[in-house]
Amino acid sequence: MNTEKQLYTVSIYTENNIGLLNRISAIFQRRHINIESLNISPSEIENVSKFIIVVNMIEEDVKKIIGQIEKQVEVIKAYYHNLDEIIYQISGLFKIKSELLFEERQIQNIIKESNARIVTVNKDFFVLEKSGRKEEIVELYNELSVFGIMQYTRSGLIAVSKEEMKISALLETYNN
Amino acid sequence: METQTINTKDKTTKTTERISGSEAIVRCLIEEDAKIIYGYPGGAIMPVYDELYKYQDKIHHVLTRHEQGATHSAQGYARISGKVGVAIATSGPGATNLITGIADAQIDSTPMVCITGQVFSHLLGSDAFQETDIVGISTPVTKWNCQVTKASDIPTAIAKAFYIAKSGRPGPVLIDITKDAQIEEFDFSYEKCTKVRSYNPVPKTVFSSVEEAARLINSAKKPLIVWGQGVILSEAEEAFKAVVEKAGIPAAWTILGVSAIPTSHPLNVGMVGMHGNYAPNVLTNECDVLIAIGMRFDDRVTGSLSTYAKQAKVIHFEIDPAEVDKNVKTDVAVLGDAKASLELLLPLLDENTHPEWRQKFADLYAIEYEKVIKNDLYPTKEGITMGEVLKEINIQSKGNAAIVSDVGQHQMIACRYAEFNKSKSNITSGGLGTMGFGLPAAIGAKMAAPDREVVSISGDGGYQMTIQELGTIFQQKAAVKVVVLNNDFLGMVRQWQQLFFDKRYASTEMVNPNFVAIAEGYYIKAKKVTKREELADAVAEMMASKEAYFLEVCVEKEDNVFPMIPTGASVSDIRLE
């Protein structure tokens, strides 16, 4: 087992019920674990939600957290993966003054090279969107920040695992 | 009352009646066989109390003197009967007063359903009078909780609550019901809950893991069993006894496990942990196979984990997968219900007696007897010891009483020395260490098992945390025997101050009231004992009493509980003095 702290995703399949976010976040809070990012969305199964929580921990502790999460009545199953075991994306949004687009020719090159997408442009500002790994978004942020960024925000990490997650099969065994 | 018959989806015919949410709550409780419930009324729960008034021939509501008392009484009721305890409170302070008992039930795996009233749903989040976010507050200390804002959701919520509270590893559940949901009328029908899609309460025992466990046990030269409350909760007492006897393995208990087999059983080698017995603690670090059954390796049991049973192969019989490898790494984990697993294990075990290994326990017991037990039970000094009070209770009860203890020195002494013949007889606050637990828990236990002798043993500190429940004893005519072992100190904290803080007795000395007068103020027969020669007769008189009885015993002020494993020390470094 890996004894170094590293980033893990904790993927949790749950019922879609009020209060469950509180119950799950309390498990991290109680153990003084900082959540690096959090995303909740519908999953591939109807009425089943999927949490993706990113934490920086040692593997042994992640395993224990998984046990505590799975113990919750409305949690169907929880998994953990390191970043090599998943396909993941993070999205970043950058709001920048429109005039810079014309005054600073370098910005146009940065946009091209980073494969960022222009979401909208008006006379005051334009919005760039960049999806990818965290480092790519941070790199773009660093490049743009020298010109001044009006607003910047980064989404939680979303991921699918390389291995199969047999949630539907699991739900069936519970029902039998 | 309007009655109608409707066809539900699955074509079964169900009878429904149009009733209010509050009546539905009471009807649900009756359906779940909750014959005695504990609580305290208030604004947001008044419609439910109005229904309890109408249904009082079917359900007995006990008015405690504080909502915390209601939870502890419900816990006592649950612990002695194995049934789900029920506590009811109003919103706001009523609800927050339940929290200590809920946290206690959570950590000690006690099945309990709490129902709280809540402000009208349109007022939620508006800081309305007596509004508090009890679902948010109780989340970390409940097995499950939810808020109900529609009357029609009440039956499924309560059915689910009872099912979740009792199944698998039991625990407390809280249902918060807004006042409009209580008032609203709907078509009521009730169906017990038997499954929740996302919830797998009892992992199926994997037979190969049992075989592996059996192989390890059969090859062991120095096996040790440590069992916990899981044996009692899964009603595995018979299977457990059969396993212990067939394999001839010395068996030690955690504080919540005691009474699963009689304390007098020849293979019962006593309590493990901080104030447990000498032999099982020392020999934990000498056994070759450690068999943990329905216990969770609490830090008070293991002492320093880095030196705990490192030489041993560890087998863990456990219902909760999250407990496996949580504190102690296991070699073989047998997940599942203890009873089912032990029944599978039994035929695979070789008969054995381990005479040399058992002799070691006897030898170490002899040392503990000489250094500690003899002085506790048969003291030669002037002051009365807590141990000799327990000895007198044992003489009178012949091991048949349920002992309900509070938290502190008296609790350790009670658990060390109380004799038990019957399971579910030791009721105490183990994991949370809740002072004030004892007296109200004893009330719940006595009401659940009126034919049993129930003795509440408290210290002068914890007793005063819920002393008002004497009023409940009086009003309910609950024949609880209440013993206070009074040393005019918060004894356990004082002991630590003596041992680890150079006797700086900061805020541990108690200037106490006239306890006998207080008990008599509640019309409870009461007596105070200060001399050894009065003790035996007083205990005999108390135990013979048909009604509630209060006995204060003034014990030696600065006695310490030994053996003791200091915090952070290894179990084998247990101190005898």
If you had to describe this structure to a student in words, what would you say it looks like?
The complex is a heterodimer of chains A (176) and B (577). Chain A is α+β, with helices and mostly antiparallel strands and 176 residues long. Chain A starts with 5 loop residues before the first strand and ends with a helix. Chain A has helices at residues 20-30, 59-70, 98-103, 105-114, 134-145, 167-175, and strands at residues 6-15, 35-42, 48-57, 75-82, 86-97, 117-121, 125-132, 151-154, 158-161. The mean pLDDT of chain A is 93. Chain A contains six helices and nine strands; from the N terminus they run E-H-E-E-H-E-E-H-H-E-E-H-E-E-H. Chain B is α/β, with parallel strands linked by helices and 577 residues long. Chain B contains 23 helices and 21 strands. Chain B has a six-stranded parallel sheet with strand order 4-3-5-6-8-7, with helices on both faces. In chain B, strands 12-11-10-13-14-15 form a six-stranded parallel sheet, with helices on both faces. A six-stranded parallel sheet of chain B has the order 17-16-18-19-21-20, sandwiched between helices. In chain B, helix 11 (237-247) packs parallel to helix 14 (338-345) and helix 16 (386-397) runs parallel beside helix 23 (532-544). Chain B starts with a strand and ends in a 23-residue tail after the last strand. The relative contact order of chain B is 0.11. Mean pLDDT of chain B is 96; it is low at 1-11. The A-B interface holds A 14-15, 17-19, 22-23, 26, 30, 63-64, 67-68, 70-71, 73-76, 171, 174-175 and B 135-136, 139-140, 143-147, 164, 195-200, 320-326.
